[in-house]
Amino acid sequence: MAQKLAADMVSVAFEGLRALSNVTLEIPAGRVTGLIGPNGAGKTTCVNVLTGFQKPSMGRVMLDGLDISGLPAHRVRQTGIARTFQSGRLFADLTVHENLEVTGVGLGLSRREASLKADALLDWIGISALSDRLAGGLPYTDERRVAIGRALMLEPAFLLLDEPAAGMSAEEADELSRLIHRITDEVKCGVLLIEHNIGLVLKTCHSIYVLDSGEIIEFGTPDAIKASEKVRHAYMGTQADAEGEIL
Amino acid sequence: MAERASILSRTIATPVILGLLLTAIALLALLMGSGPFNQTIIDIFIRVILVVGLYIFIGNSGVISFGHIGFTCLGAYMTAWLTIPPPMKKMALPGLPGFVLEAKLPFWVGVPAAAIFAALIAFFFGKILMRLSGIAASIATFAMLALINQIYSNWEDVTGATSSVVGIPINRSIWPYFVATLVAVAIGYAYSISRSGLALRAARDEATAAAASGVDIPKERLRAFVISAFVMGGGGALYAHSVGVVTPDTFYLGLTFISLSMLVVGGMGSLSGAVIGVVLLSTIIQILRLFEKGVALGDTVLTIPNGVQEIAIGVIMIVILMRRPAGLIGNREVGWKGFRKA
Ligand SMILES: Nc1ncnc2c1ncn2[C@@H]1O[C@H](COP(=O)(O)OP(=O)(O)OP(=O)(O)O)[C@@H](O)[C@H]1O
Ligand SMILES: [Mg+2]
């Protein structure tokens, strides 16, 4: 299994707007890496680059020693880099079980094999009861867990979570934190956690990158990030009091 | 954790019930015994084949194709080329290659050959078209239909241009059509429970997430496109053998519209919807046609004016779609205990 996923001097420009500038970051296996930053900082764009949904204007995406920048999204998933989406994006007309099965099939399993894997994984996450429900009608929190399950099929080497706790209560976020640790410990995944819930990030991550206006402005342990003047400044500057208070 | 029943055992009821429905229709024809009624049933079977063909691509991919009747055209002419007696071919279609001109193949070779030919052409078109999505894909399929229609309307010594190609051996027994319809339903069912079918339905719901799940969307779309073209081509060939004559305009906008309507009215995302939509609408059309000719009720003959049938069918479709925008069956499939979510 791959040991390191990295962005190497990645820049992305949208019609003149620089969404990412020379971003270099590393996601090691078996650990939780945080990525925080104000709205519009470029976090989702960063995930899009790492998963083949966005071609970098400059720079490379490296999986161990291998340059995977040019691969289309489905091929990136096949190399073991999985993601979730900020907006859920479950297959609404399929059942929860089928949502997971799709990944199995996409990765080359037969429907029977995919079905068995999906059952085992739903059980592991603790949402077997949802198996035969249509994904379209799920409450928010369940939707998030199904999305994580779908991404976890066949144990990817890396899992990139884009705001998985959005809309969750404090207890639900705690439960999510425990799930993420089970993922790094038992699946040995490297996890990238993007979140606006800074408390969750500080508690869950081993190390944290801070992105502001497309640039990495800080990197360090949760304690170091908490103490950082630069980070405080970035958040205060763009996002008024709410986020400032959390920090 | 209880072992989940296999996908086959959970869903096999659907093709079995649809097969029984089709068998009932065939037996009805047998009971009635009359020639014109036989022809009506054959028409229904052919419609079912075409709409199931549409379902395989449109239902699973969610991409509306206006082009599939082009494959029906390809199939109809292919079987005409292969099965018309050589002397007639040499007169009407002298531009055909020598070995085709000399060939006099039976119906049961012509139909599969036509299906394979349509699938082959679909493969080449699909290589390009399946990269497109949404409305761009739909318009491109329409362009493909127009292209096929133009070629077949103008290639005088191979297709007879706009004039009718006659002399296709006619087969009036309902059985070949019945068997072919069962085969089409079986293909539609097999595709929908296949890996590719599941992946494509996922891409229909959320293309981005499907790609993130490892699904190669253009590849899966191409598979569905080729398989559905196979069914459409076979349906076209059967049509040719049911009436003995083909023209390019038989396979153009009118047939495209009515087939798509039947799929949408039945329920675009459902094989059951495809079959039941056709059977229901065809039955209504037949009853209305009967009344247009006049039905004796005791002493009085009940007649409705010509054209009422078309109008009524239009109104019925609008009403169904207003009440049930996802079609009569919606996204569900028939099972032993009524309907289940597909
Ligand atoms: N496809 C696109 N075309 C043009 N601009 C884009 C596109 N995607 C993102 N952007 C812009 O790039 C910048 C970074 O967006 P991104 O979605 O990566 O931010 P984010 O950090 O994920 O924000 P949020 O916390 O709100 O999710 C924003 O200014 C956004 O408007
Ligand atoms: Mg974002």
Automatic annotation (TrEMBL), chain A:
InterPro entries reported in the protein's UniProt record: AAA+_ATPase, ABC_AA/LPS_Transport, ABC_transporter-like_ATP-bd, P-loop_NTPase
One CC-aspect GO term: plasma membrane
Molecular functions per Gene Ontology: ATP binding; ATP hydrolysis activity
Keyword Ubl conjugation found: no
Entry keywords, A to Z: ATP-binding, Nucleotide-binding, Transport
ABC transporter domain ranges (all copies): 5-238
Keyword Transcription regulation: no
Pfam assignment, any one: ABC_tran
Protein name: Branched-chain amino acid transport system ATP-binding protein
From TrEMBL, chain B:
Swiss-Prot/TrEMBL keywords: Cell membrane, Membrane, Transmembrane, Transmembrane helix
GO cellular component terms given for this protein: plasma membrane
Pfam families noted in UniProt: BPD_transp_2
Membrane topology of this protein: Multi-pass membrane protein
Location, primary (coarse class): membrane
InterPro entries in the record: ABC_transp_permease (IPR001851), LivM-like (IPR043428)
UniProt subcellular location: Cell membrane
Transmembrane segment boundaries: 12-34, 40-58, 65-85, 105-125, 132-153, 173-191, 224-244
Gene Ontology molecular function terms on file: branched-chain amino acid transmembrane transporter activity
N-terminal signal peptide: none
PANTHER family: HIGH-AFFINITY BRANCHED-CHAIN AMINO ACID TRANSPORT PROTEIN BRAE, HIGH-AFFINITY BRANCHED-CHAIN AMINO ACID TRANSPORT SYSTEM PERMEASE
Listed name of the protein: Branched-chain amino acid transport system permease protein
